## 1
Amino acid sequence: MKMIFHIFFIISLVSSISFASVQDFCVADPKGPQSPSGYSCKNPDQVTENDFAFSGLGKAGNTSNIIKAAVTPAFAPAFAGTNGLGVSLARLDLAGGGVIPLHTHPGASEALVVIQGTICAGFISSANKVYLKTLNRGDSMVFPQGLLHFQLNSGKGPALAFVAFGSSSPGLQILPFALFANDLPSELVEATTFLSDEEVKKLKGVLGGTN
């Protein structure tokens, strides 16, 4: 019995090793094909230290828009060195009253840390339970993969946060834009959201939707 246990232990150990990375990194090659697992690898002979560094998060994003907010992503392939590593970053800038509307990242969980201001953040579980928290400078919050969540500037001045994702390509779908910023027929939106025709057309007009 003890020998059988050792055999199973060795098999499981070998199996885990076989799925481990066989190369140090896979810097994204945006010119190559993309698969569900990420971008093709850049020729190692062409990889430089610049592929592992990103300076785009040092500048504030433009918040002169309908949501009064900006997201500056550091995902693959823009941050090529993250490809295949299971990590990426982003910067959130929120002007007064700014909001990152209800959205989801189908490919990753998210961790947020507030650098400036006050942010009301929350997510909704698959059981429709709401987890809501007011975050101040230095506070952090995590958002589980695939769940609807949001961030709202609830302070008096601008707010700044940095976020990290558990994927180099976490994906993004913003709920209001998914419903009202495309050509999904209004009658279908009304039937699936219980909103009136007037409300749907008003929101489509605001967000640029048609039909």
## 2
Amino acid sequence: MGRPKVKLAWVEERKRRATVCQRRMKELIQMAEELTIVCDMSACLVFYNRKNGKLVAWPSLEEAQSLIDCNNALPETERNMKADDEESSFIKTITKEIEKKLELSRKAIEELKMDNLMLQIKNGSRMIADLSQTEIEKLKSYTSKKIVYYDRELRKQHPNTSGNEPFLEDDDGEMKTYEGESSESDGADNA
């Protein structure tokens, strides 16, 4: 369970404020120390109290100064680039994920439109002759993709069939039956 949210506000009482400050500084130092171990990187923390001029540095004032000097020695463009690099990398990752989701959504919408169009044609509310050239091309593309998909699925379920022979016919041209089904229709459709 996570730590409850603390309302950030000025602590009026001086002794309590000093205690809160010490506790929070200790927590930050512990987190920074863990980060340096886990990520194998250098880090420093510097706390400065403007009222009394007190400076606290972790791990030491010399190491903190050394890290700050290393950072300041870099050209400004490189410093800014390194600072933005992690943020821009995160943004690029999120952008790619969103673009992928958007593309999947577009494909799903297009499939729904084609399913709806096929249903309209089946129900007679639209005629093939009334379709635009674009709709016809999209419908042809969609149905051919569906046929390929279902062909693959059927071949996964029945891997012993070759690609050249009809899937549901015997060598005699009779319909194949599976799991006790009869090839005789008795004049009724079993749907």
## 3
Amino acid sequence: MASVDFKDNLLGISWVDSGWVPILNPGNVLDYFSERSNPFYDRTCNNEVVKMQRLTLEHLNQMVGVEYILLHAQEPILYIIRKQQRQSPTQDIPLADYYIIAGVVYQAPDLGTVISSRALSAVHGIQSAFDEAMSYCRYHPSKGYWWHFKDQEEREKNKPKTKKKEEASSLFQRHRVDTLLLDLRSKFPPTFYQPKPGEKPIPVEVKKEPEPPAEAVKQEEREPATKSSAPAPPSKPPPEKRARLQ
């Protein structure tokens, strides 16, 4: 099997002659393809011999060698040209296909090239994934293996800090607070109150308890004194101890 030189690989290039693009048609597309500046055209083909002898393309079937034919045409944008090896008027071997899209000539890749390119792309992606995964792997004899991602610390730094939710008060705390508020309200009653939100506060009328007369106060003071001066009832003596009968 003959080796293919990298210089002979024309899959990565294209060719166009802007002067031919507006007038391209199935009758002159082979003349356009046979331009001397076209790198895809072989000067040793039978088409060049027919062109020099001013013969028609029908004479290509009677010749042996490399030739170019128009395989498919979809006017005005797509033309497919085939390069083939003519062995007899009824036998030929395809060598390469070229497609012309809007006047730009490309070489169509063969099946082996397509499979090789896809396999190479898949292997490259898998190898890149393994290389990146290995860059995050760490090992220590005492700890073993673990993963250390480069952007992990940055994510933790840039992560917004969430405020801790305050715990709800317990039943004991609410009951105790209500008791303290009621106690303060009884000691310090409000002097103003607001009937509705937005209205002007109204002062609260505090009713004062009437003071007791002086005679009643003196009488109350005397009663405790008389109660304290009264003799206390005699206390009962302790019970006598009786001897136990043996």
